[in-house]
Specification:
One of its GO terms (biological process) is proteolysis. This is Calpain family cysteine protease. It comes from Tetrahymena thermophila (strain SB210). Keywords: Hydrolase, Protease, Thiol protease. 13% of the residues lie in helices and 29% in strands. By secondary structure, the chain is of the alpha+beta class. The protein has 5 domains: 198 residues, no CATH class; 141 residues, Cysteine proteinases (Cathepsin B, Chain A); 160 residues, Jelly Rolls, CATH 2.60.120.380; 166 residues, Jelly Rolls (Sandwich), CATH 2.60.120.380; 146 residues, Jelly Rolls (Sandwich). It has a 6-stranded antiparallel β-sheet, sandwiched between helices. Helix 6 crosses helix 9. It is elongated.
Length: 925
């Protein structure tokens, strides 16, 4: 099987950053003294929190998690006390049970969860891969059944041999970390029962935490070749490599699942650090090599004790039958880098390579053990204390930097940080609304004229809902930020393209609600999705305090680039490695309130203006009333739902204005016909144009009672309106105080009398009150006084030619039938509004243009003035409100008849009825 063909190319594509990217340039510049604290920093300076201007500081202690799995302890050792308590306790209990069973029976332990049969070897025992078919018989033997001198480990730098399927990536990762040796031992949790009870325990870093894996010592064995089926140690009496591979296979489910993988992932699983890959013949890397920057980076990596490895990858070839390349180096086999030296006087740059493949795959070029080059540099040979023996090599060789990058084409780096670095890890997820997707471009105004004050540009409708993490620094701090997905071998979810953005955010209390300005974006890990789907992406960044502040506040926003099913949970792990202590918190999710709605035959009023003309039907649209209880960030999102294709081309948007809280009426009914009425007239907008700049100290929100329909935007009234650029979604962002509200939200399409379904959603950081106008208790109709047909005037108008009451035309005015569903005491308000701005031009005098409302009890026969209920008040206003209270309700209903004082004045009007009881209102012909 040729697994490394895909693995090596996978490692190339899964590099943790573009070789020539700004990120690596920044890292190169900041590499010096990466492990040292800034000695020039004033160590005595104390961090002081600033007081919040609007609301209390978010509690950093809540949801903050300094990694319980701190990767490194004293002297670069794993701190086992910090391993997850539940995980450790569970395996300690299992070990105790195994030892008790061994004490009672004397039998070596056999793992029931990973039995010695084909179920532990293959994903599907009925569909065995080709490499499994090549082995006729597989038996499972204990180490002492394979070698009488069996030991768990003899030499931590011991060589390895490939087994049946020639896996390379996992063994390559082991080889790289065994270059130093000290870290390898930390993976051995318990090995003292290797001989007696027949089990060993390893640990691997998986899905954000260290996980212990116990395995018995039974190993799959090929009796024909007399070899362990998979990777084995070069020494026949050493067994730590095959047992570690078995534990790693058990963690993933079976041996076959680790046939394919990435060495970069393997390095992280073995160290808990972060890894990256370089393609040495990449044009950007070549430029760094030519400028000597790459050598400086490589040297810095080595001095920081990062783990380094290399491979000569040849596409189309595996590892099992790979050829020996030029000068003896095996193709597609991983080698470790164990020393890097520069000798300026000799003008030499040397790299020492560890060969883990025994006598195979050794360098035979310049500076190898038998090279004549050493005769030219005898002082250097003595300085390096080189002793060349004719017998077996020590498994290492030197080669020049120039030869190294000519004969190897890939470099792997595993960065494991020392004790004085802080490590933080938070588990989070994208699911439902937190699947916010990519950061969209900022909307730009395309109009030729300056953007009107009332116009509000659309914003993104979901990116802001991605999980967000606040990071505070008190001094200049170097950080590696890692975004890691669940291992696809365990989660059964394939990897998706991901990204994260680090944003400077001066608002220390809230998440980022809007797409940040370009100069606020500190770094973006995967801009434009240049990196493919992979398990982990990592970025290096240096963060500073804000100018004039003793802190720096930043927000990290991870997001998926690849779309995923909305209800599908995708878990991820955000890891932060910091040179100094920082504060890390996951910000609370947004609060959500939503309502479904429909534009139909009676409430599809269209835009406020159609073809730059006022649209009286606009007030027919559904209306929502929003109240706040404290200063709040909001995203108000209107989205079509259902059969969207049928409404393509119909753009949607919304208008938002202030709701004028109505005064509570204290009217008392006095009988069926004797009622109390209240009239109130106003010029449109005269009382609605309250400034929205009230002091924030007045945090008590107004009580939202007696809500009623908004009929139109009055003169000088403040409001906001979207741009109607999309036929699917409209999203607006606001930051409001309670005293600026309550608010009315009026969603609409850009055309009237069209049908569509929609969903109105409000996301906020504080609770809000949202109430839909009840259309069974609030109704609006558009009417018209038509010339010579229904422009009858009122019964009080004294025309010189119409002295006879029977000849007056007031009964010809438009009529509307009002019926209440229940016979109970009822209060209601009738509002008559003149919709046309040029109304005054139609009247010769103020008196003639006055408006009034007739409320008449419906009876048989002709309408007479005796049917009226209450007084008929005519006022010289544009909006007239009449309030009624009826103690009993007429079964026949009531006529509402709007009228002008003088006859023969035509024009459009709006009639609105609001009640505390359900009713119907219809226009009569």
């Amino acid at each position: 099987m040729s697994d490394s063909e895909s693995n090596a190319s996978s490692d190339d594509s899964r590099s943790q950053g573009d070789n020539g990217s700004d990120q690596q340039q920044r890292e190169i510049e900041d590499q010096n003294n990466l492990n040292q604290s800034d000695e020039n920093e004033d160590q005595g300076e104390q961090y002081e929190e600033e007081k919040s201007d609007e609301m209390g500081e978010y509690d950093e202690g809540e949801n903050s998690q300094k990694d319980g799995n701190n990767l490194m302890g004293d002297d670069n050792e794993y701190n086992e006390d910090k391993i997850g308590d539940d995980n450790m306790t569970r395996y300690q209990e299992l070990e105790a049970n195994i030892l008790q069973m061994y004490a009672e029976t004397g039998q070596k332990w056999q793992d029931p969860d990973f039995p010695p049969d084909n179920s532990s070897l293959f994903k599907d025992v009925n569909n065995i891969p080709e490499w499994g078919k090549d082995v006729r018989k597989i038996t499972w033997l204990r180490p002492h059944e394979i070698s009488k001198e069996a030991k768990f480990i003899q030499d931590k730098d011991g060589d390895a041999k490939q087994g049946a399927f020639g896996e390379s990536w996992f063994i390559g990762a082991i080889i790289i970390i065994s270059t130093h040796g000290d870290l390898l031992e930390k993976l051995f949790v318990e090995t003292s029962h290797f001989d007696s009870a027949g089990f060993v325990t390893f640990q691997f870093f998986k899905n954000g935490e260290w996980k212990q894996v116990i395995v018995d010592t039974l190993l799959p064995y090929d009796p024909e070749s007399k070899q362990i089926l998979f990777t084995y140690c070069a020494s026949p009496s050493e067994f730590w490599i095959p047992l570690m591979e078995k534990a790693y296979s058990k963690l993933h489910g079976c041996y076959e699942k680790i046939c394919e993988g990435s060495i970069l992932e393997g390095l992280v699983d073995l160290t808990g650090g972060v890894s990256e890959g370089w393609t040495l013949n990449d044009p950007d890397t070549s430029k760094l090599i030519e400028s000597n920057q790459f050598w400086q980076t490589l040297t810095n990596y080595f001095h920081q004790k990062f783990y380094l490895g290399c491979v000569n990858y040849v596409e189309g070839k595996g590892t099992k039958n790979a050829d020996t390349g030029t000068h003896g180096i095996l193709e597609n086999h991983h080698y470790g880098i164990c020393d890097i030296r520069e000798f300026p006087r000799e003008n030499l740059k040397l790299i020492r390579i560890r060969n883990p493949w025994g006598t195979d795959g050794g360098w035979n070029g310049p500076f190898c053990d038998d090279s004549e080059e050493w005769d030219k540099y005898r002082e250097l040979r003595d300085k390096l204390k080189l002793v060349f023996k004719s017998k077996k090599s020590d498994g290492t060789w030197w080669m020049s930097f120039h030869d190294w990058y000519l004969h190897f084409n890939k470099l792997y780096v595993c960065k494991v940080f020392p004790e004085n670095w802080e490590v933080y890890s938070i588990e989070s997820k994208w699911q439902g609304k937190t699947q916010g997707g990519i950061c969209p471009p900022r909307m730009e105004y395309e109009g030729q004229e300056p953007m009107p004050e009332f116009l509000q540009l659309d914003t993104d409708e979901k990116w802001f809902n991605n999980p967000q993490f606040r990071l505070k620094v008190q001094k200049e701090t170097k950080l590696y930020i890692s975004l890691m997905l669940e291992d696809e071998k365990l989660s059964k979810h394939s990897y998706v393209q991901c990204n994260f953005i680090v944003i400077a955010n001066k608002d220390r209390n809230n998440r980022v609600w809007e797409r940040p300005q370009d100069n606020d974006i500190i770094i973006e890990a995967n801009p434009n999705g240049v990196l493919p789907a992979q398990r982990e992406i990592t970025q290096y960044v240096s963060l500073k305090r804000f100018e004039g502040k003793n802190y720096g506040n930043y927000i990290i926003v991870p997001n998926m680039i690849t779309d995923s099913k909305k209800d599908e949970k995708r878990t991820f792990y955000l890891r932060i490695f910091a040179s100094d202590a920082v504060s890390v918190n996951e910000m609370p999710e947004t609060l959500e309130v939503s309502m479904d709605g429909q534009w139909g035959d009676f409430n599809s009023g269209g835009k406020r203006k159609i073809e730059n003309k006022s649209n009286a039907n606009w007030c027919r649209n559904p209306q929502y009333f929003l109240n706040l209880v404290q200063p709040t960030n909001l995203k108000i999102i209107l989205k079509k739902v259902g059969q969207i294709r049928r409404t393509r081309g119909l753009k949607i948007g919304m208008t938002i204005c202030r709701f004028e809280v109505a005064e509570k009426q204290n009217t008392q009914g006095k009988g069926k016909k004797e009622i109390q009425t209240q009239s109130k007239g106003k010029q449109a907008g005269s009382n609605l144009a309250r400034l929205l700049t009230q002091t924030q100290q007045q945090l008590e929100p107004p009580i939202m009672e007696n809500i009623e329909r908004k009929l139109f935007i009055g003169y000088a009234e403040k409001f906001k309106e979207s741009t109607y650029i999309s036929d699917e979604v409209c999203a607006l962002y606001f930051k409001w105080n309670p005293t600026e509200g309550p608010f009315i939200i009026i969603p609409s399409m850009d055309q009237e009398d069209k049908n569509a379904n929609y969903k109105l959603t409000i996301y906020s950081n504080n609770p809000v009150q949202l109430q839909r106008l009840d259309e069974n208790k609030n109704c609006v109709l558009i009417g018209k006084w038509e010339q010579d047909i229904s422009d009858g005037g009122c019964h009080l108008y004294d025309d010189p030619f119409e002295k006879d009451m029977t000849k007056k035309t007031w009964t010809q005015n438009p009529k509307f039938l009002l019926n209440f569903k229940e016979n109970k005491p009822t209060s209601f308000k009738v509002t008559l509004a003149i919709a046309e701005k040029n109304w005054k031009a139609k009247t010769k005098n103020t008196v003639g243009g006055m408006i009034g409302i007739y409320l008449l009890e419906k009876r048989e026969g002709k309408i007479s003035i005796e049917q009226r209920i209450g007084n008929i008040n005519f006022l010289p206003v544009q909006v007239l409100e009449e309030t009624y209270h009826l103690s009993e309700i007429s079964k026949n209903g009531y006529y509402i008849m709007p009228s002008t004082y003088q006859s023969k004045i035509s024009g459009q009007f709006i009639l609105s009825v609001t009640s505390d009881s359900e009713f119907t209102l219809q226009a009569l012909k």
